[in-house]
Design brief:
This protein has 225 residues and is an alpha/beta fold. It folds into 2 domains: 78 residues, Arc Repressor Mutant, subunit A (Orthogonal Bundle); 114 residues, no CATH class. Helices cover 43% and strands 20% of the residues.
């Protein structure tokens, strides 16, 4: 069954949202340089056409938009699935979408990909691209830790930079193990943790405990504004 062609701007919006998992009007406005009202209208139009789904699991937070199966077909997006949104993960999705947009604005020659797009890329290649290999194993062997985002330079042979959006304090041992895994990851240029002050201090302790200072840094979440 053939589907009606959609405008390039709509196709690009669907692909960007699917690759991140979810987007917001604020993130789209930041990325495109449009007003929030204009971005909200673009997302609303795609939702009206059933290509995006609206989610508002937190009353005080922004609305999240995810690509539907209709949207995946309309945008000819292969290998990705509609993203699930839960109250527990909504705030992290909102902030990650905004960080992705802000990084694209700051580094126009690079590409920013989210975890769904990264998972697809690594599944196709059969090897880590911007993920770290953890010390412990699962039923199928070594486990990967995927970052929230990856900043991929456009130059030939340049390694990606893993971006971790850390909003809550993880257990110290687990965080240190992740930092050690990042320190061993020679396929990434480095790792940037973006965190609010209380979480930033916990990440700094984990970096020191794992002796990962040469590969991993943590900066204020506000620094990407």
């Amino acid at each position: 069954m053939k589907h009606r062609a959609i405008p390039p701007a709509r196709a690009e919006l669907l692909a960007w949202t699917a690759g991140l998992g979810a987007s917001t009007a604020d993130a789209l406005a930041c990325r495109s340089g449009a007003t929030v009202a204009s971005a909200r209208a673009s997302l609303g139009a795609a939702a009206h056409d059933r290509q995006l789904a609206r989610h508002k699991p937190l009353a005080e937070a922004q609305t999240l938009y995810t690509v539907t199966r209709v949207g995946l077909r309309a945008g000819a997006i292969e290998g990705l699935e509609p993203c699930r949104v839960s109250p527990a993960g909504a705030r992290h999705m909102i902030v990650s979408a905004w960080v992705a947009a802000a990084l694209e604005r700051r580094y126009p020659d690079a590409t920013v990909i989210g975890e769904p797009a990264l998972r697809l890329r690594e599944r196709a290649s059969g090897m880590p691209f911007a993920s770290s290999v953890l010390e412990w194993e699962g039923p199928r062997g070594k486990l990967l830790h995927r970052p929230d985002l990856a900043l991929v330079p456009s130059g030939e042979g340049q390694r990606p930079i893993a971006i971790e959006v850390e909003l809550t304090v993880k257990a110290p041992r687990r965080l240190a193990e992740i930092c050690r895994a990042w320190a061993r990851s020679r396929h990434v240029e480095g790792v940037i943790y973006l965190a609010p002050p209380p979480v930033r201090r916990a990440v700094e302790r984990a970096i020191a405990a794992s002796q990962a200072e040469a590969s991993v840094v943590v900066v204020s979440l506000d620094s990407v504004a």
